[in-house]
Amino acid sequence: KQWYQRRVRGSKSANIFGTAYIEECSVCKQRFTRKVIVPSLQRVCDNLDCAGRLKKTGVRYGQTVPEGPLHRAEEAARGADLAIVLGSSMTTSPFCNLPTLSKRYILCNKQTTPYDEDAEICIHDSIDNFMSRLLLELLPNVSIDMDYRQEFEIREEESCVIITTPRPNEPAVFIDEATVWDSTGNPRKFECNLSGIFSVSRDLIEDGNVIEIEFKESFHVENARVKFLAGQVVKGSFVKHLKYH
Hints:
Helix content: 10-25%
Low-confidence stretches: 1-6
Largest sheet: 5 strands, antiparallel
Distance between the termini: 19 Å
Radius of gyration: 23 Å
Mean pLDDT: 89
Strand order of the largest sheet: 11-12-8-7-15
Shape: globular
Strand content: 25-35%
Number of strands: 15
Structural class: mainly beta
């Protein structure tokens, strides 16, 4: 998703439903791209002189989609030799009609759809399996070798110690929970507020205490253990190596 956002811009993309990775300010109308999907509540504009409320640009169920992206999608579909549909029930109009505007279309979905019979090829399988086999056929000698990295930092703020990311106005939502172990071996849980910030009272943590960071299961990475250093910003990260052949 993030790779897509960095490399596909403007007229090359018809993002009909918007994206949860981009927030727009209700006052100054500035847009901010995030590396993670941030919480929906208590979001305030990055511009300190504005203080407007931030809202994700993703379209919610029942809302009207923007006309511009939908028109671009229709034009692109009409000019396409082939459309590939990945993981869609094909039951929501007018979006389910887009692939039919192209000369041919391929459907890949685990369940059956109303458009299966008219598809050039219909595959009932997972998207991962389908795309892996397709890329292996088209690009047999190409592999993807990359590191997916998420960074966090621990710092003092007024009467508490918080865990967040080094990126402005972007909480560490990839963390599941955090625990500080005091000198006697007793655990103290960090509290996570509605903004996604993990915090613990400064009175409960001493210099040198170990903080254990537990990441969300979906990332399949090991927990991190870091030491709290009074008066300093402690930086950490997790790295997941991704390799596809």
